[in-house]
UniProtKB/TrEMBL annotation:
InterPro entries in the record: Ig-like_fold, Ig_E-set, NXPE4_C, NXPH/NXPE
Name assigned to this protein: NXPE C-terminal domain-containing protein
GO biological process, one term: nervous system development
Database matches in Pfam families: Neurexophilin, NXPE4_C
Transmembrane segments: 12-30
Source taxonomy: Eukaryota, Metazoa, Chordata, Craniata, Vertebrata
Record's keyword terms, sorted: Membrane, Transmembrane, Transmembrane helix
Family: Belongs to the NXPE family.
Organism whose genome encodes this protein: Zoarces viviparus
Family annotation (SUPFAM superfamilies): E set domains (SSF81296), SGNH hydrolase (SSF52266)
Presence of keyword Glycoprotein: no
Domain NXPE C-terminal as annotated: residue spans: 329-553
């Protein structure tokens, strides 16, 4: 299969124009990561409209395998288009005082186009002005803000699209989708300076969470450090790079045992004091970490029924992927989400096999279906809790459900090496067909690494998806995005919402144009009234599963 076939459709035309530059890109990529191309903006992203794609960051000690010219070009384009606006470095020790302070920042609802009236189908625009801890308006952008419009009584909610004007002010744009009150909520997740810190940590200290393996043979056993990339030392390495996917993985070689004697993988722990106290102040709960920004005036509007003027279609083009109404997720852009009773689920899944791959947030769907379907019985594979794999069967309706973790890095309990499988290789083992549903979600274990690691993982998964859809085009493939979570200092530094958001952008870019379906867990969590959680609570999972079932059984 030609690798170009995988590339995003929009890249197709660009590829032709840029073909001549492929070699330049590749050469520059390989010998100098600090190369700053003139910003050719391909995908305009709301929070990252500009600027210098590669600040003078220290090169990671991760040495990335060379890619094919097409993959290298795609990696470059994706890194450029998702580059976060650069935040000017501020001098310590007055560092914190000059960063955005949610308590001093405000948002203002801009007047509606029709003389202060809003109708269903209109857009609501909010201007956000950030200020520092001394109350001085910020002059530069780069802060990470989230916006939501909601009505608790109607159990309605929708995510806003945030635009960074790069001058300290931001816009949040909301689609008005229900009649009645709509309350605006704006949250500072991280000041821009915190994003610079996260970027630096992922370059310089991707091993702040570290992994280990036990090696054993006879009565000898040894434990060594393992990772996607290990710091160069005199110690010899065991190279576990997957020969089929090219996924890198290494352990330091045990002194007295061979590389073949590795029996498991687990998270060793996390380093201490990888951030200085001054930088830690950028991540304070209740101060500048996921803290609400108040309104300068009213924080809500009343939305009237849809007006004569039809403006609805323009709302959806770059708008939200859906919204909640009476607690039920309504997807926008073509898919109708239905609600499924237990018997409707059984009917829908009758004769089907659903294979789920990824992290624990995908396993939640497996667990939800197991609990929802009385006829579905989990088969005891004697798997360790968390690690899996898992399998459930409904003999009467001939339903098979499986769930398996993605390949390393995995930050959980001990996993046997014989159960470590890359999603791409698992997909290659499927015949596919109209009765096969493939679901995957992979994001939560990559938060400490440079984005190249995630891009390459998705490139290998996408190749396998393309092969699967080539041999069985009627296979249904559904992808779960990452979601926002409850943040404290440690979670921010190892698995921040910012990193998840960036992963989602990469995921969208990478699978655009393929016959796959996305479930936007990001917006489904953001728009909901329940608090953000790495593992969203049951009402949100129920909506996600209904969304999945609506792809499997459109009515
Ligand atoms: C790069 O790393 C070195 C050593 O850790 C440090 O001294 C230097 O300031 C860093 N440069 C930048 C631009 O961060
Ligand atoms: C920032 O830029 C936006 C968009 O160009 C503009 O509307 C706004 O007035 C600017 N704010 C300041 C303080 O210059
Ligand atoms: C590890 O193995 C892969 C696959 O054989 C190879 O391409 C790569 O160069 C090796 N890496 C190191 C550091 O030895």
């Amino acid at each position: 299969m030609k690798a170009t076939a995988c590339l995003r459709k929009e890249y197709g035309a660009l590829l032709l124009c840029l073909a001549a530059f492929v070699f330049i890109f590749v050469l520059r990529y390989m010998d100098n990561l600090e190369f700053q191309p003139k910003s050719t903006i391909i995908m305009v992203d709301h929070q990252s409209v500009s600027t210098h794609p590669h600040p003078h960051m220290n090169r990671s000690f991760c040495t990335f395998q060379p890619l094919s010219p097409e993959d290298a070009l795609e990696e470059r384009l994706i890194l450029d288009s998702t580059a976060w606006p650069e935040t000017p470095l501020l001098p310590a020790p007055i560092f914190l005082e000059q960063t955005s302070d949610p308590a001093h920042s405000t948002f203002t609802i801009l007047p509606g186009r029709k003389g202060g009236e809003w109708h269903v189908g209109d857009q609501l625009e909010v201007m956000i002005q950030t200020s520092d801890f001394q109350g001085r308006p910020k002059k530069s952008g780069g802060d990470f803000l989230l916006a939501r419009l909601h009505n608790r009584k109607l159990e309605a909610g929708v995510a806003g699209q945030v635009v960074d004007h790069l001058n300290g002010s931001y816009s949040a744009v909301f689609s008005l989708l229900w009649e009645g009150d709509a309350q605006v909520e704006v949250t500072l997740v991280h000041p821009g300076e915190a994003i610079s810190v996260l970027n630096r940590l992922n370059r310089e200290q991707p091993d702040r969470i570290y992994f280990k393996s036990l090696f054993r043979s006879g009565s000898l056993s040894e434990t060594t450090l393992c990772d996607v990339c290990l710091r160069p030392t005199q110690q010899p390495l065991c190279n576990y790079t997957d020969l089929r996917t090219g996924e890198p993985w290494f352990c330091y070689k045990p002194k007295s045992l061979s590389c073949d004697t590795r029996i498991n993988h687990y998270m060793g722990g996390s380093k201490e004091n990888f951030l200085n106290a001054n930088d830690e102040k950028l991540f304070q709960r209740g101060v500048n970490l996921k803290v609400s920004i108040r309104a300068s005036g009213p924080a809500s509007v009343t939305v009237l029924p849809q007006g004569q003027l039809k403006v609805k279609s323009s709302t959806v083009t770059s708008g939200p992927s859906g919204y909640y109404y009476q607690g039920v997720w309504r997807a926008l852009g073509g898919t109708t989400v239905h609600e499924f009773s237990a018997s409707a689920i059984s009917q829908c899944l009758k004769g089907k096999a659903v294979h789920m791959y990824g992290d624990s947030t995908v396993r939640q769907w497996f667990e939800f279906l197991n609990a929802a379907l009385p006829g579905l019985k989990e088969f005891d594979l004697h798997s360790p809790k968390q690690a899996g794999p898992y399998m459930s069967l409904d003999y009467t309706n001939n339903i098979l459900l499986t769930s398996r973790f993605h390949g390393p890095p995995i930050r959980i309990v001990v996993v046997s090496t014989s159960e470590l499988r890359y999603i791409a290789n698992e997909l290659d083992g499927l015949i596919g067909g109209p009765n096969i549903v493939v679901v995957f979600g992979i994001w939560a274990h990559f938060g400490t690494f440079p984005m190249e690691i995630y891009i390459r993982r998705l490139q290998s998964i996408r190749r396998a998806v393309v092969r699967l859809l080539d041999r069985a085009p009627d296979t249904l493939v559904v992808i779960r995005t990452g979601n926002p979570k409850d943040l404290n200092l440690f979670v921010s530094l190892t698995n921040s919402d910012w990193h998840s958001l960036q992963c989602n952008k990469v995921l969208r870019a990478m699978f655009k144009g393929l016959n796959v379906h996305l479930i936007d867990a990001w917006e489904m969590t953001l728009a909901h009234h329940l608090p953000h959680n790495l593992h969203p609570p049951p009402p949100i999972i129920k909506n996600m599963v209904n969304h999945l079932l609506s792809y499997i059984c459109p009515q």
